[in-house]
Amino acid sequence: MNLHEYLGNRARKTIMKSVCTTLERNPEKNIPRLFKMLKLLAKDEDSNKAIRNIETYYSDNPSIKQLIDSILIETNPKFLKKFFVNFIANAIWIGGKKRSELLENEDIKVPFTLLISPSMRCNLHCTGCYAAKYDKLNGLTYEEVDRIIGEARDLGVHYIIVLGGEPFFVDFMYDIYKKYDDILFTPFTNGTLFNNDIADKLVSLGNVMPMFSLEGFEKETDARRGSGTFNKVMEGMDLLKSRGIPFGVSSATSTNNLKTVTSDEFIDMLVKKGSRMNWYFMYMPVGESPNIDNMLKPAERIELGRLTKKIRSTKPYFTIDFFNDAPYVGGCIAGKYYCHINSNGDVEPCVFAHIACDNIKDKNLIDIFKSEFFKGLRHRQPYNKNMLRPCMMIDNTNVIREVSEKFNAHPTDESAEAMLHDKDFQAKLDKLSSDFKPYADEAWEKDFKSKGNDSFAKG
Ligand code: SF4
């Protein structure tokens, strides 16, 4: 390290320390100072621009101001600090530099986040669960999860999403969360196991911020997840809110619940419960008995994107639409910004694309990221010019078939088998794709002026 770098690092550490101290004491009273320090820390232009944008939204948009103020006032300071250090500093800045160097020097694209399903065991049996066909008896061991996460961290990954199955069924994950306290973890949970003991454990960790699955109010949620589920989730939220633990909600949208999960009543209820964000997914034709009729109709899929944006700009609530926000991240992110390790150890490029060439039991993560399969897939991205049609399974249906054949990827469950080899099922998916195209083309021009994030799109 030369003198210039040494001094730069020292200055950075001093500013980081000041940010942490400010977050621990009255952060809401020091917001201009916080923005100033964050801009000093963010050396790269993209991060700096993102902070400037948030600052502008904060001063110009009352709902964003309300959201940020309430997060700073109501969140347990330990979580604020962990979010800043683990997510902003470690995952975006420090990890980002490491990942960029690997890409520039060795053409290895290390994803920003890793999704991992340690086990498929679950106390519920939800209709249309994308993961229903995975093996429920076996799972990854503590040693395997420990190894994967250690390798990921060494490669600059500091944000991990934990799926399943029900993540809170896997006791050893608490040891993982504790051991990797420089990583931010987001378990996606059905919320039915929460009690005082679990909430206290999360407080003592500080780096675990859950997302509760909800398909709407009691009627919609219980119809899919079983009677009593909605009320258990409400109790879980109360336990976290009372301790200042930040959390969000993930909603699978289908033609049956689109209106409900984007309604003012639903969002207002969640804001009141203490949730900070909603992550909208679309019901996908994977998992148990995939039913294309349950998927959003073309106009509904576009409407979801517009409603998501409206909530984001009018409510003190952050929203992400996994599909309609794709233009902001350059289209499909499979195998590029994220991937999924299933409970068998197969490394799938996307949590919905149940195909794999490699298993973490046979290879190190870095060798999987530099495999021909991952490289070949990302070099095809974006699959077309319209980033509102990002998907290799439902919008560009040839892609999953061609890459699987070319790289000899195997299906990791029955529904992927159908996607790759069942002609009738393929014809239905092709129709779905061609039906959606005119709607997507119109919205691409109208809502995005035919422009997405080209620099993120490159594989
Ligand atoms: S394959 Fe489809 S679902 Fe998966 S990341 Fe790409 S666009 Fe999203």
UniProtKB/TrEMBL annotation:
<dbReference type="InterPro" id="IPR007197">
    <property type="entry name" value="rSAM"/>
</dbReference>
<dbReference type="InterPro" id="IPR023885">
    <property type="entry name" value="4Fe4S-binding_SPASM_dom"/>
</dbReference>
<dbReference type="GO" id="GO:0051536">
    <property type="term" value="F:iron-sulfur cluster binding"/>
</dbReference>
<dbReference type="GO" id="GO:0046872">
    <property type="term" value="F:metal ion binding"/>
</dbReference>
<protein>
    <submittedName>
        <fullName>Radical SAM domain-containing protein</fullName>
    </submittedName>
</protein>
<dbReference type="InterPro" id="IPR013785">
    <property type="entry name" value="Aldolase_TIM"/>
</dbReference>
<keyword id="KW-0411">Iron-sulfur</keyword>
<dbReference type="Pfam" id="PF13186">
    <property type="entry name" value="SPASM"/>
</dbReference>
<dbReference type="InterPro" id="IPR058240">
    <property type="entry name" value="rSAM_sf"/>
</dbReference>
<dbReference type="GO" id="GO:0003824">
    <property type="term" value="F:catalytic activity"/>
</dbReference>
<dbReference type="Pfam" id="PF04055">
    <property type="entry name" value="Radical_SAM"/>
</dbReference>
<keyword id="KW-0949">S-adenosyl-L-methionine</keyword>
<keyword id="KW-0408">Iron</keyword>
<feature type="domain" description="Radical SAM core">
    <location>
        <begin position="108"/>
        <end position="315"/>
    </location>
</feature>
<keyword id="KW-0479">Metal-binding</keyword>
